Amino acid sequence: MGDFDRARELLEESLLRTPRAERALLLRSYGALADISRHQGRFDEIQRYREQQAALTGAASGWQVFESGRDRLATGGSGAAGLFRQAQRLAESAGDMVTRHRADLELCALGASCGAGAATTAHQVLRQSGIPFIVLDSGLAMMKVLRRAGQISDAADLAGDVLNDLQFYRRKLAGVADTWYFLFGEDLFREYMTLTLASGNRDDGARALLALERIRRLDRESGSRAGNDELRNGLSALQAVYTGASRSRLEAVDRSLQAFRRESGWTSDVPGRDLLQQALAKLGRNEVLLAYYFSDDGSYVLPATRNGVRRIRLDKGDRLMQDMKRFRQALYSDTGPFAANSPEALGRALLGPVQGMLNERIYLLASGPMLGFPLDALRLKGRFLAEQASLIRLETISALQHSENSTAAPALQSVFLAGNPQAGQDLFSYGISTSAELDAVRNEFVGEGLHMVQGVALRRDEFSDERFAQAGLLHLAMPGRVDLEQPRNSRLLLSGTRENPSAEFLSADDLHGYQLLASLAVMTGTEFSGQPSTPFDSRTGLVSDLLQAGAARVVCSLWPAGDRQTAALMVDFYQRLSRGVTVDEALFQARKALIDSQNPANLKDWAGFQLYIR
Question: What is the pTM of this model?
Fold first, then answer.
């Protein structure tokens, strides 16, 4: 979820400039580095950072021993319970009741002997501490305690409270819980899904689908830093030195936090069954919504129609994720072949359980391993899914409520066409260099409504032009990278100049500042790279940013198909659109024409182009 490598680099650099007198800041930085190392599985580095902390404090303190216990848990080693008991004693003697109760809760979560009501008492005290990461951390630990005790319903209710707290922090007090979210959000979401799948009717997929939708919304939360700066700054400072805070100070902070919560008019954004029913009511008789959830404990497909949602467990879920990864890597590679039967084998595994529901149009709510995975390149009973149905990727379930408008034929009267010199061409040449794709698209839309920019003229300021913001069609034929691990690192390549030969890029963050009127944006030179950090990642760099900026639909390539191949597909696609065909049907027909040519080698020419709507 977070860019931990970059965070590690910045922290290491800051340590070199931080005087030893800034003890609290140094302790916090070494602690953050240890937490990042724990999260990344760099267990050999954890001890080094903990020793640096110990050198600053002298004698071991309760909170240090507590963190060592959590380190031990992460490494899978024994002795964590003993460290938590030691942390209890040290914290008790130092009057650090926060660490004392955190250790109580961890012991109960481990199933160690703890007094009657000890977990409940610890959780109540910690929840009232007012410290965001303590509130969230204790909630997650208590969820595990309740699940271990078989109190699934109570644990699920608590999970809802923790998610509400997290959403509040991220939206109203941006920054105060981000570190916890990046480090432990995946653990929280896994526990939430485990509880969701363990409760209710095992055949009812609605609960699971709504849980995934709730996670998607939380993952996309981007709060504003405007608001109560005094409270935000106070919370940030308190989180760094909470072990020395008195109970009265913690209670005062909690009262301020709750007052702000009430005054801000906070209400949680929880998708419910009413929203789901309204969205599914928009599905046609021959349409289905698919969502997949992958975990080591079990993987599922959730097919939804107007009649409801089912939950179907997939066989060999852990192996399935590896097979998907290999298939995707082979397709993305220029030379790497994939096993001859892999499209069929994966088709049977992923599509076979729902084959009776796959008709004319499929909406896909993709996350985790399904991001960047060409589902319609799989085969079922000897045919590609792309031959049987159009596939549309959704940002959220709510997109179904206006899906008819989102797939309708777009307005193509004004066109912004941008292209980059192909690899190997002279970046410093001021002569006109173009490509088969740019020529073909230009010829389709030549006229007053076309604005075309390419070569050395392709600079960032071109995208500040109102012709970009107001165009009905954006066709961006520039090489680009969609980073699945770090979506914010996604970017499109612009071009340099004679005076400044270094390359320029249009980043995902750049797109946030635009307000677009485009009914369709097309990116043909992008290549998806990396793997999503968690099964819950749902943002697709550049694509999600264009949709958020106002584009109604986006067609994006998972890998570059080649200049002439892309030109042919785009001409066919745009000609069908000009005849009033819907976007998904035009793309379906253009791709199917290539499939019908019965040339097995052209799989990479069509399978990478995917349609997204918001």
Answer: 0.91
